[in-house]
TrEMBL record:
Lineage of the organism: Eukaryota, Metazoa, Chordata, Craniata, Vertebrata
Protein name per its UniProtKB record: omega-amidase
InterPro entries, sorted: C-N_Hydrolase, C-N_Hydrolase_sf, Nit1/2_C-N_Hydrolase
Organism: Alaudala cheleensis
Coiled coil start-end: none
A GO cellular component annotation in the UniProt record: mitochondrion
Length: 273
């Protein structure tokens, strides 16, 4: 099946972002994409100073638009970190997924908050404004089961391993690595998660805006279960297309059967809730 990743240029005007995103979703569907993903923070600039201002409840303006365009195009739509979600007085970094009938299939709240300090390069603390999610998020399609993470979640190998154990064959991480962590770890982490679990990994970033307060690395990418990069964007706004071949996944798992060779008598990773 065809997967499309929309590397969107994000402005400070929410309505413009929504209109542009929906237009590119329609374009992707017209080119045969059955599963389309938007980047982290596609409807607002990324930064702790913006989260409260742009926050919405779910359902709300942005998710309603996503539901409508998913139904119109009869696709599965991963809404990136569509919005800072407001719920019960707390803010969450939340990704929503809609099915071809417009129904909400999954809502993933970022589990691991991006609190880092690389002296002389970047300091960022999402926990100043956001609260963490407390659950794994998976959804079924006629093609395969898909697991969700958001950006920093990708650094935690245990999360991807749980998704693999639960039958996911594709992991999607809307993300916005920066100009420090992007060139160092963006592709490396994706290839690691893919090889470790013998599944496809897709990441979808905003396009790079050098004038933004937080500059995204871009380079939305798809990696196959062999660890090969099979599609990758540059820094500019674009739509990345790739065909996900589940027969290749099955072949790789048969050739190198690590999933059946794990020593569960010696070690294990489990989902607690």
């Amino acid at each position: 099946f065809r997967l499309a990743l929309i590397q969107l240029h994000v402005s400070a005007v929410k309505s413009d972002n929504l209109q542009r995103a929906c237009g590119l979703v329609r374009e992707a569907a017209a080119k045969g994409a059955k599963l389309v993903a938007l980047p982290e923070c596609f409807n607002s600039p990324y930064g702790t100073q913006y989260f409260k201002e742009y926050a919405e409840k779910i359902p709300g303006e942005s998710t309603q638009k996503l539901s409508e365009v998913a139904k119109e195009c009869s696709i599965y739509l991963v809404g990136g970190r569509s919005i800072p979600e407001e719920d019960g007085g707390k803010l969450y970094n939340t990704c929503t997924v809609f099915g071809p009938d417009g129904a909400l299939l999954a809502k993933h709240r970022k589990v691991h908050l991006f609190d880092i300090n690389v002296p002389g390069k970047i300091q960022f603390k999402e926990s100043e404004t956001l609260s963490p999610g407390n659950s794994f998020s998976m959804f079924d399609t006629p093609y395969c089961k898909v697991g969700l993470g958001i950006c920093y979640d990708m650094r935690f190998a245990e999360m991807a391993q749980i998704y693999g154990q639960k039958g996911c064959q594709l992991l999607i991480y809307p993300g916005a690595f920066n100009m420090t962590t992007g060139p160092a770890h963006w592709e490396l982490l994706q290839r690691g998660r893919a090889v470790d679990n013998q599944l496809y990994v897709a990441t979808v970033s905003p396009a790079r805006d050098e004038k933004a307060s937080y500059v995204a690395w871009g380079h939305s990418t798809v990696v196959n279960p062999w660890g090969e990069v099979i599609a990758k964007a540059g820094a500019e706004e674009t739509v990345v297309y790739t065909d996900i071949d589940l027969k290749k996944l099955a072949e790789i798992r048969q050739q190198i059967p690590i999933l059946s060779q794990k020593r569960c008598d010696l070690y294990g990773v489990e989902m607690k809730k």
